[in-house]
Design brief:
By secondary structure, the protein is mainly beta. The protein has 4 helices and 21 strands.
């Protein structure tokens, strides 16, 4: 192709894409917004409000530099889930170098919920201050009066400081060994040692527990919960939020102890709570995990990998970020995952797939292309 023709195509492609209307999902393919620009909302969270869906996610830039927050949290809106309008940057990183959300920090998996008592939209996200790697394991909180923002950063925090979980063990209240205190276990694992042997929970009791990959869930009764990977990613914590959704009540449980689950997603169907997550292999995809419980507090029963068929062992080359209930449709849910590209962060793709149910289990199969009519025969 001659250079002149190539330039013409590059110029016209966004204009053609702008007029394009999507009528289906094509997992892994480039997905353009109303401006003909790829949707840039990774590690996303979703909320349905005033008859529209809103998608919040990490805004990435090109190259490995895009793995750090250079812009902020991007927001999109849609009335049909196929076509998305760019609503701009909902939460901007700060140009103030001493800010917790200074440009270059790590800001991951933003989720937004609406508080009917305060009339505020509340955003939580995993936060690591700039230049400190993953040593912080903090949660960031921001609020807005309007769903699309702008969101104002409120604070960052460790979780549930000074509180023991509902299912605390006696060993957690024992004096913590100096060797455990001295361990700088901020990476992906505990080098084969059990978190209870080291008493990581006890080590972090006063300062607050670690929180990395996270999710928010609002139950039918309006109670909100923060679900996150804790204790150096070895254990999931599920913590109840205060009525304003801005803090913890102090009530929480440990789940999946020593199972090293990340990327948590929780949804509810027919009175049962379902969990989906991944293992801990960094940016590389792995086999998904799933579980079911009669209560948000458990007990949780693992169900294995919900993905079926070819490439199921890598969750179809993706990692869970959200399970989306389709508004107006009973028991209709969509798996939403990220196909990360850490070498060129902006080119991460999105995997949306329908969820099937059988005997209190859920399954996910690959589809090159599908639409919401898939659920009509279910």
């Amino acid at each position: 192709m001659n250079k002149k023709l190539f330039c013409i195509i590059c110029f016209l492609w966004p204009l053609l894409a702008y007029s394009q209307k999507y009528h289906s999902f094509r997992p892994g393919e480039l997905w353009l917004d109303n401006n003909g620009v790829h949707i840039n909302a990774h590690g996303g969270g979703f909320i349905f409000y005033n008859n529209k869906y809103y998608w919040f996610g990490e805004h990435k830039i090109e190259g490995e530099k895009g793995n750090y927050a250079q812009v902020g949290v991007h927001c999109y809106s849609s009335s049909d889930l196929y076509n998305w309008n760019d609503e701009g940057i909902a939460l901007k990183v700060s140009s103030e170098p001493n800010s917790d959300i200074a440009q270059g920090c790590i800001l991951e998996r933003p989720k937004v919920i609406y508080n009917p008592n305060t009339k505020k939209f509340v955003m939580w996200f995993h936060l690591e201050p700039k230049g400190k790697g993953y040593t912080g394991a903090l949660s960031g909180i921001a609020t807005a009066n309007k769903i699309t923002g702008p969101y104002t950063f409120i604070r960052s925090t460790r979780t549930t400081p000074g509180c023991y979980p509902v299912n605390v063990l006696d060993l957690h209240k024992c004096p913590v060994k100096q060797s455990t205190i001295d361990k700088k276990l901020y990476g992906g694992g505990l080098n084969g040692e059990h978190p209870d042997t080291l008493n990581i929970l006890g080590r972090d009791f006063k300062e607050g527990q670690m929180a990395r990959d996270m999710q928010l869930f609002v139950d039918d009764n309006g109670k909100a919960y923060h679900i996150f990977a804790s204790e150096t990613n070895s254990t999931i914590h599920i913590a109840e939020l205060t009525d304003d959704f801005l803090d913890y009540t102090g009530k929480y449980v440990r789940a999946f102890v020593n199972r090293y689950m990340k990327a948590p997603a929780i949804f509810k169907k027919d009175g049962l709570y379902y969990f989906m997550g991944s293992g801990c292999t960094g940016w590389k995809p792995n086999a998904a995990r799933s579980a079911v419980a009669p209560s948000i507090w458990g007990p949780w029963t693992e169900l294995g990998n919900p993905c079926q068929g070819e490439n199921s062992e890598t969750t179809f080359h993706s990692q869970s970020t959200y399970i989306l209930p389709v508004s107006g449709r009973k028991n209709v849910f969509i798996y939403i995952g990220d196909r990360w590209n850490p070498q060129n962060a902006i080119d991460g793709r999105y995997i949306w797939l329908p969820i099937d149910f059988q005997d209190n289990r859920f399954n996910i199969h690959w589809h090159n292309e599908w639409d919401l009519k898939y659920f009509d025969c279910k």
